[in-house]
Amino acid sequence: MNRHPRFFTTNKKGEIYELKKQLNSEYRQTRSDAVKKVIASMTVGKDVSGLFPDVLKNMQTDDIELKKLVYLYLMNYAKTQPELVILAVNTFVKDSDDPNPLIRALAIRTMGCIRVQKIIDYLMEPLRKCLQDENPYVRKTAAICVAKLFEIEPEMTEEQGFINMLKDMVSDVNPMVVANAVIALADIHEDNPEKHYFQVTETVANKLLHALNECTEWGQIAILNALTDYKPKDGKEAETICDRVIPRLQHANGAVVLSAIKIILMNMYYVKDKEMTQTFYRKMTPPLVTLLSSPPEFQYIALRNITLILQKCPQVLNNEMRVFFCKYNDPPYVKLEKLEILIRLCNSRNVDQLLSELKEYANEVDVDFVRKSVNAIGRCAIKIDDATERCINVLLDLIKTGVSYVVQEAIVVIKDVFRKYPRTYEGIIPQLCENLEVLDEPEAKASLIWIIGEYAERIDNADDLIGYFLENFTEENSRVQLQLLTATVKLFLKKPSENQGLVQTILQTASNECDNADIRDRAYIYWRLLSTDPQAAKAVILSEKPPIAGENQELSSALLDVLIREIGTLASVYHKPSETFIAGKTYGADNVSKAMHSHYDEEEDPNAPPQKIREAIKNNNIGDLLDLDWSEPSPTQEMPISNNLFDDLLSFDTNTSVSTVSQTTNNHTNSTDDIMKLFNTSNNSGLKNVNNNTTNNDPFANLL
User: Fold this and answer.
1) Tens digits of per-residue pLDDT, 414-432?
2) Helical segments of 385-542, H only
């Protein structure tokens, strides 16, 4: 059957055909409009790579606007048409000699952005001429082009002398050329740090500081970042650098302000004059306060950086606590950061004002924020000894409200207060125990159980309270079960004549009916201790625990020093080194060594890291910084001295060392046997007797 050919033909050519026709038009305006249409289609994601030869024909034009559009098209599709890009080389070379500096800069910038291997050889001479161009705009554009060329051909870039030309441009008379040269050298140095392409010497530092005042805001940031690698030769030079950087604190751009603060903090290590140091602190305060008047997103960045600054220099913002009070319309993430800073700024002079503010926060509708506020009250009690009683009274007032999540968070922080001040505030325990029925969260239950077990001898109905929780022992969270097990044994050791049946019941239930291996193991250990050596059991379970430290959320000193160097970057927001954001790079000894040895001298800075850590860094004998804690023990942490050989190894939320446990083997030889021998040795029949509920050879009888 023959089909008529007219059914398979059409006069509609399509959009690409129309654009091709317009690009080859004899009229200049038509060609210009066609290129604009091509760029518009490219912008929305349409594939117009088929028009590459036709667009290329429009390169040779005196219309700068049209030339920019053509160059933009070339940068986008050069990789898809590498063979045809060569056709544009002659135009690029011609434009690099154009009398108009804008065209010269446009040509060299486009050639640098076309990342095609075949065009590199043709780029060398135009780039060399542009680096020495009489116009500063062309020179600063060519400086960035060197960094782009280095990414493709690092060896050729070095052989052709472009890196040395960049170093010479740091001394350029134009500050913007200096800034771009610094940016390019910094990028090159970051790609190959082992070759030390860019080192800031005293001469270079003076040139950078001289160009600082006349740069744009982003040029100032680049120069300030470069100055972080410079170590002043003495305190006088450090003061000079700080004085020359301080005017940047008044800049409208927050990034410039943070970069300037970073330089001041790093050079203050070398300033010996205490009055001068205090002066620098005072001058940093107003700019940091001003950053808090920004929109919420910028506020958050400022708050995260302020947290780092306060850890390093607590004197800054010491009298500016009010500016961190939360506003009703602050986003939750801003409120939580402000809370952390408020706790850091809290002292004996302003604690009453802060407690009043935190009490108001506890009446908010945001549950998470309310919990953090209640927790902050407890942290103030732990931090400031003189204000503990006032903090306790505020927490008791909040407990009286009867709001479930407020009551539970208050009990959790009061447990920490008891750890900090043992045998001091036991009088409030009855008020805590009145809220048993309100508790429905594992952490709150475990906290109250810990309090009951720790102070069982002072609570008349401690056995009834423990029995209340034991009713649903098998259904509780594992954290609650573990703490309940320990608290019951504590109660038995303190009141053995009244609670023998209770401890036998929970040990039997924990060892026979719980699937969690941790709970069973703990029950077996307690059984073994109680049945073989009751005195050892008392030594382990009823030992004195060291009070907790005031602040437990500090960064390690080594990590803090690295983050101070990166203030104003993403690293200071996440509180993680920048290397952790780059795939294929790890954060380790080399990075820490750079941070340590470039800005620390143990003789000059009493807060320098310990010698053993410095030696480990030098020998590259360390692991990932994020997994290490190099900070020295907090001076606020008290370690009691006693003849007790045991810490409370099994107590809830205990952060103490267990290194002394091994010493107990000399005094309690029975407890060193394999715990499973308890079930195979006829002489140690404690477990069997408990399981059979017999009274003969009662393993706990010798405690009565």
Assistant:
1) 999 998 888 888 888 888 8
2) 388-400, 404-420, 429-433, 442-454, 462-470, 478-494, 500-512, 517-532, 534-541
